[in-house]
Amino acid sequence: MRPAIRVRTPQEIRSSRRPRRHRCWGHLVAAPLWPMHGANLGTLLRTCDAVGACLAVPPFGWVDEALARGNTLRQPTCVHRVGSPLRWLADERRAGAAVLGVELADEAVRLADLPPARRRTVMVLGHEATGIPPEALDLLDSAVEIPMVGTGSSLNVAVAGSLVLYKLAGLM
């Protein structure tokens, strides 16, 4: 007979995690710089906390409200406010970060083949309907594609970003 599955308590889970050195983890940054739906930002914020990533958001007026509504943890999380998405991506690249776009592209790596991030990596997510703008594609070092079997051509930003973040964090 199999032993019963014992569910760990929230205290046991928290005590087994690595402690944060400071508010900004810095290694992984999710960058949904052209979002259409605020609900996706809240979901990504939760995933960022789960994998130890930061979230970079554009200067749209509704972003702060969407993040506050979506932060179900009710704790401070690492959010970077980006003035100009293109200038910020160029600065990140110049500073040595790898800039990875989640996009359907000829040269894209399949999600299953994406290695964990070994240096600061910015994961760029585009607009839900139009993707990453053409002027931002030149700032990418590489792209990752999430294969799909169904009739849709893409996942929503929160789901796609969450899958890629877990892979980059080496957690799947």
From TrEMBL:
Gene3D superfamilies: 3.40.1280.10. Keywords: Methyltransferase, Transferase. Residues 37-166 form the tRNA/rRNA methyltransferase SpoU type domain. InterPro entries: Alpha/beta_knot_MTases, rRNA_Methyltransferase, SpoU_MeTrfase, tRNA_m1G_MTases_N. It holds the Pfam family SpoU_methylase. GO terms for biological process: methylation. GO terms for molecular function: methyltransferase activity. This is RNA methyltransferase. The lineage of its organism: Bacteria, Bacillati, Actinomycetota, Actinomycetes, Micromonosporales. The gene is spoU.
